[in-house]
Specification:
It is built from 11 helices and no strands. Helix content is about 65%, strand content about 0%. The N and C termini lie far apart (about 45 Å). By secondary structure, the protein is mostly helical. It is globular, with a radius of gyration of 20 Å.
């Protein structure tokens, strides 16, 4: 299935996302197919494979036992989704190229450098602020002689599985495709309106991808709102920088896998809260400087 082209899509000056690539527009039928496959695959892992891997997805159980937890369910699920949805559907069926979904190898190194530097800076900041909240400074409970494999597994699951998949599909692929849909359905709309419509639609679908897990939690409805906000934040980072790898790095930090220092704050913890506040402050400063520069 080849991406469909339209005269509207070729107007480079009209492309409302200035810093990210303009991909070929896939057909609406393919877009619906990709979303259906993605939601079914996510539901399979969240409702079945994570609960009973030995029955529903034996490779997840085998790899976990063989590596002592270094290869965990999140990594197996993420890599599987990358293979099926991104490689199989987007690259194989729709014939999109890696750069069409934001994969620019030149941007990987600075994003990795940022991830390492930001993580180290956050640990130093925690040493300063944890005593202010009456919390002692100590290693996280997972970083013990017996639990380090699980801690490493959580990091690998986010670094190589969950975050790359979600950023590639929802920010790299779905966000610009929703922008192309908005351009087609609202050809006279202002660029800001098109961007806003694409953000709400694509990141609403991102939040809905977590509903299967949220249903089991009493605060599930609030988590859904938070996930929508997080999706908007990661999308804005991508739109502002054009670096999808940077959005992945921030996604990993906000998810706060296996905190090095004991972190008793619920949800994303102190680390995730610092990351979220930092991103919002940075995005606000960019908006403020842009307005005053104009």
């Amino acid at each position: 299935m080849q991406p469909t082209e339209s005269r509207l899509d070729q107007g480079g000056a009209f492309w409302p996302f200035e810093r990210i690539p303009q991909p070929p527009r896939v057909s609406l039928g393919f877009l619906i197919l990709a979303l259906v496959v993605e939601k079914f695959a996510v539901a399979f892992f969240q409702l079945l494979a994570f609960r009973a891997p030995g029955r529903w997805f034996p490779p997840m159980r085998w790899l976990g036992h063989a590596t002592g937890g270094i290869v965990d369910g999140t990594l197996v699920a993420g890599v599987t989704l990358l293979a099926v949805v991104v490689v199989g559907l987007l690259f194989g069926v729709a014939r999109l190229r890696p750069r069409d979904v934001g994969l620019d190898p030149r941007r990987l190194r600075p994003a990795l450098g940022f991830l390492i530097a930001a993580w180290a800076a956050i640990q130093l900041l925690l040493v300063l602020i944890l005593p202010l909240f009456g919390q002692r400074i100590g290693l996280g409970p997972q970083w013990t002689a017996d639990g380090w494999r699980s801690a490493v597994g959580q990091w690998l699951g986010q670094l190589l599985g969950n975050c790359p998949y979600e950023e590639l599909f929802f920010r790299g692929f779905l966000l610009p495709q929703c922008g192309l849909l908005a351009m087609r359905w609202m050809p006279s709309a202002r660029p800001r309106t098109l961007v806003a419509a694409a953000l709400v639609l694509s990141q609403g679908l991102f939040a809905l991808g977590h509903v299967f897990l949220n249903l089991r939690l009493p605060e599930g409805q609030w988590l859904l709102v938070a996930q929508f906000v997080f999706g908007i934040v990661f999308a804005l980072v991508y739109l502002r920088t054009g670096n999808l790898f940077l959005a992945m790095a921030l996604h990993v930090l906000l998810n706060n896998p296996a905190p090095l220092l004991e972190d008793r704050l619920p949800g994303p913890g102190y680390v995730g809260s610092i990351v979220l506040v930092g991103i919002l402050a940075w995005l606000s400063s960019l908006t403020w400087s842009r307005r005053h520069a104009g």
